[in-house]
């Protein structure tokens, strides 16, 4: 009887010890004494995640607050990469928080960097079309550098094409022709340098004469003004004399008519000059 009781106790203790060991292993697997409670967040990115390892760190302003638990393609859009983040509960993930991929050094592994999260921004919440809250992304340093390099390469290509068009055979021939024309013009100018000097001297003399004439213009204007004033006075005198001249002209016309009448009488009867005019003949009944 005692033997059967001992076997039962041993079996019981073995079962209890095994269950305890299993529970202990599960506890350590879950994080052990340093276990933290995590909240799940989603991040969708179109950048390459070749340098992002599984269980990569998630840093909020440089402080590690979690890790990447899953990396895979977005089933709804395979052109995007879907990252599932486990972030410590209580981390202030706001609507203006942004996630980006960063490198630890030049050749180090990548991690997820969280920035932003102003105090006045609301806490990020899950929407109906996603199982977890979705953190928006911002371009990483590598992506910005890639964009800059592409733009610089495009600009260099355009510059090279423009230089190629500028240095075409036709343009080079035109430049050579222009240089030849300039050389010929320079030769002609050298051959006629004496004439050019004379022309310049003549132009200088003309400018001096023009300057002298310009200096005399004020005196000429004063003389013209004085002459205009005298002409105005003469016109006023003529205007005052016109009535007298008109009266003299009328008297002259009267005298001319009288002389004409006298001439007619003398031609008709010259004795009139000696005896005077004859009396008029008597009328009927006188």
UniProtKB/TrEMBL annotation:
InterPro entries: Mce/MlaD. This is Mce/MlaD domain-containing protein. The chain crosses the membrane at residues 7-30. Gene3D superfamilies: Methyl-accepting chemotaxis protein. It comes from Acidihalobacter aeolianus. Residues 267-286 are annotated as: Disordered. Residues 277-286 have a biased composition (Pro residues). Residues 40-117 form the Mce/MlaD domain. Keywords: Membrane, Transmembrane, Transmembrane helix.
């Amino acid at each position: 009887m005692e033997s059967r009781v001992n076997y039962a106790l041993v079996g019981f203790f073995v079962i209890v010890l095994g269950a305890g060991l299993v529970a202990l292993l599960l506890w350590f697997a879950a994080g052990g004494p340093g276990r933290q409670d995590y909240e799940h967040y989603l991040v969708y990115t179109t950048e390459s995640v070749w340098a992002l390892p599984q269980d990569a760190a998630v840093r909020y302003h440089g402080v590690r607050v979690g890790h990447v638990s899953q990396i895979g393609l977005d089933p709804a859009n395979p052109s995007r990469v879907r990252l599932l983040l486990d972030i410590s509960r209580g981390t202030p993930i706001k609507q203006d928080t942004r996630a980006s991929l960063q490198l630890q050094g030049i050749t180090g592994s990548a991690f997820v960097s969280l920035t932003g999260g102003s105090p006045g921004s609301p806490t990020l919440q899950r929407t109906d079309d996603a199982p977890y809250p979705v953190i928006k992304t911002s371009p990483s340093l590598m992506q910005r550098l890639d964009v800059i390099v592409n733009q610089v390469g495009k600009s260099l290509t355009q510059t090279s094409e423009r230089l190629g068009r500028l240095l075409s055979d036709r343009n080079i021939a035109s430049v050579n022709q222009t240089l030849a024309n300039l050389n010929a013009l320079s030769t002609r100018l050298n051959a006629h340098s004496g004439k050019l000097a004379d022309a310049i001297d003549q132009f200088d003399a003309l400018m001096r004469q023009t300057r002298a004439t310009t200096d005399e213009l004020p005196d000429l204007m004063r003389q013209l003004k004085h002459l205009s004033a005298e002409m105005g006075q003469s016109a006023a005198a003529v205007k005052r004399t016109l009535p007298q001249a008109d009266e003299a002209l009328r008297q002259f016309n009267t005298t001319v008519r009288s002389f004409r009448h006298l001439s007619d009488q003398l031609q008709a009867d010259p004795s009139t000059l000696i005896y005077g005019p004859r009396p008029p003949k008597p009328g009927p009944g006188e």
